[in-house]
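User: Modeling request: complex.
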Amino acid sequence: MEKLEVRHVSKAFDGRSVLEDVSLTLREGELVCLLGVSGGGKSTLFNIISGLLKPDAGQVFLDGEEVTGKPGKISYMLQKDLLLPYRTIVDNVALPLLLRGVSKQEARQQASALFEEFGLEGTQTLWPSQLSGGMRQRAALLRTYLFSQNVALLDEPFSALDTLTKSAVHEWYLAVMERIRLSTLFITHDIDEAILLSDRIYLLTGQPGRICDEIRITQPKPRPHDFNLTPEFLVYKRAILERL
Amino acid sequence: MTRKLPNTIRRNGPALAAAAVLLAVWQAVCSVGLVPGYMLPSPIEVASALVKDWPALWENAQITLQEAFYGLALGVAIGFVFAVLMDAFDVLYRAFYPILVITQTIPTVAIAPLLVLWFGYEMTPKIILIILVTFFPVTVGLLDGFRAVDPDAVGLLRSMGAGRWQIFRYLKCPSALPHFFSGLRIAAAYSVVGAVISEWLGGFGGLGVYMTRVKKAYAFDKMFAVIILISVISLALMALVELAERRCMPYRHLREKS
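Assistant: Request completed. Predicted assembly structure:
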């Protein structure tokens, strides 16, 4: 079943084309990556998928239902965690529920129930400034999850983390995804990250943004720790580099 | 030894020492007779005037405080409404912001007598003057706060289906709190000074009226006493604002606690 489908989306700003005929699909439980240079219209595409921007042409479907230009269906997560400094972690995470009209008490309960799953136990009453970068990203992810069950749009979510934290977060993310049956569409400019995490990779060329190729990473999950040192990994990497 | 001094003493020690030295010099100048007593009362004389005159001072202070309180409350409320409207409608911002700035360039001493002529000697003209001087810092502070909100955070809330009101309630309002409080602290200080000035320029009671009376009587010791009282009241109000700030924004004072 296709969780998310983008059909022939185009967008121009002031006559300058930013996205041209972009189509992609995300199946249930899949992790799909959009890989491309910065300024390639990736963030514009995310704004269109989340409904914040209307495309000039094309449509977006979630679970078969058209959601083009309708915010409030799919949320996203940025490199900045955007946790609000004046709300405790649990109140930050529960925010999408409050926006939907769930009572404060109920929202806190629902959010708290997932803290352990996301490795956040014991942080409920802390302030965002008291958490490390990795923990803040986990909280941001939980917030995204509480909003749009099962689909996550992630815009370079881990690129602000240092290498060691990053690889720990990668591993954790894949494990969580598996357990909560999350489908993920992921933007990155980090080729290694894309190959490590993805089931499929869409290659996006810049100006205007067009999908020029789709690469399937057939290595089964969970992938070994040293996958990025294997010859297969390098084959993928070479193929991607040649096309970008 | 010095290392073991409590934090508060270490931090405020220099200020206290400087004040003590200044007071001592002032007292010495008066005691030696460098300046005649009727022109500059000594600190001890001022203190005794403060104590002796306390009932009258306190009675007038209550009037001033009342004016300051009403004026400040209304000023803050009006400032809040202005800021919200100007933030929501850019046309209003462009139309009225210059006018608001101009209202702040009008000297209060010039407008207070006019207000007295228009509204009489009672409390109304005083409260209006205080509103005029207090709404502005609140409006500007809030506007800055609203405008400093991260557009990405607005986008995030919109993507979660938040409407304008929800964005205001969950994002803009709480984000603007620190800016609001810096405006409020200034407004609180202005409110007392504004009350005293407008009483000075026409009224039946209050510390400003008391000041004009003791000035006419050349009672300089009482004059100094009332000045000190006004300073203390202003400081107390600012301290109250700071207390409210800490209550409302505990997350901004985490490091100091630990």
